[in-house]
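Explain my protein.
***
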Amino acid sequence: MSDKTNKITLNGQEVPFEEGDTILELAEKHGVSIPTLCHDPRLKPAGACRTCLVEIDGWRRMAPSCATQATDGMNITTESPRIDRHRKTLLALYLTDHPKDHSDCETGAPCELHDMATAVEAPTDWPHMEPVRAGRPNDANRFIQFLEDKCILCARCTRYCDEVEAVSAISLAQRGAHTTISTVDERSLLDSSCEMCGGCIDVCPTGAMTEKMPLVANDAPERQLSKVRTTCNYCGVGCQMDLNVTPANGKPAHVVKVTSPPPGTTTNDGNLCVKGRFAYDFIHHEDRLKTPLVRGDDGLLHEATWEEALRVAAAGLRKVQAEHGSDSLGFVSSSRCTVEENYLVQKLSRAVFGTNNVHQCAAT
């Protein structure tokens, strides 16, 4: 077996690589930044946006680094006058049918296209063309909206829907300048196989796929919101997510959006379900219970301390046990609890009250 180490030259530096590494992956490992718009580590490389082109000695044309695997002896350049000229021209072309003003474009998620164009000083004075791709303004779903004027057809959303969620609710439709993101027969997402996970929103680099819930636009764009990492409490899987909180500005802070952590940084790999991403309005709901309630002798519920509420609950359970026996009791836990918490519930049922009548809705 050969012990030869495969190496390439990256910007003048010789570096090793493993079989199957793409140039983009190799560059990231060695701290070399290559801009991309269509790439996501959870998806198969598409090479669609052409922003990640690099020069390779002996190659007449520049190559997409996201879709080109490294081979032994390659000499790769990621920054050069030719590459810089290409990026400026390409991004200027993208902006010709995209909202020109950066702040107007960012009503929700940060626009990676504008950020990239600013970084390479792409021309912004080229003639503007109104996009002719069609949208779905009357889609009746509550959560996801498609803003066709912001779409750059990177296909991140359709590929995520197909490769990660495996539901293929959306796809590229039409041809040429009319190509757009659509559903079968242009139906509402409610009438498709869509699971409303919001993954299309998460992967969109320009905010073309965005939330319908209006709180973000009314308070502040996402880049002005503070992110607080937390664990989703809708089931016991333990998905990590970021609560986006408004700046104080003399007002109480509010959670106005939920976003995914970057792929590869958490156990859920940046993926969330419809509950985790969209069901956060209970946090500030006026009907949300904030203290325990105990029913008094008058038959009405009254606010109580946690100690009082636990004491009343324990007394009620013991009373039923004494009058009707242990098997008259039943304990039902929740899939929102952790494995450890569900373990304690069954110990409470079996060891403390002496009954095997214990269940949890996920049946674990």
In short: DSSP finds ten helices and 16 strands in the chain. Residues 306-324 form the longest helix (19 residues). The mean pLDDT is 91. The first strand starts at residue 7 and ends at 10.
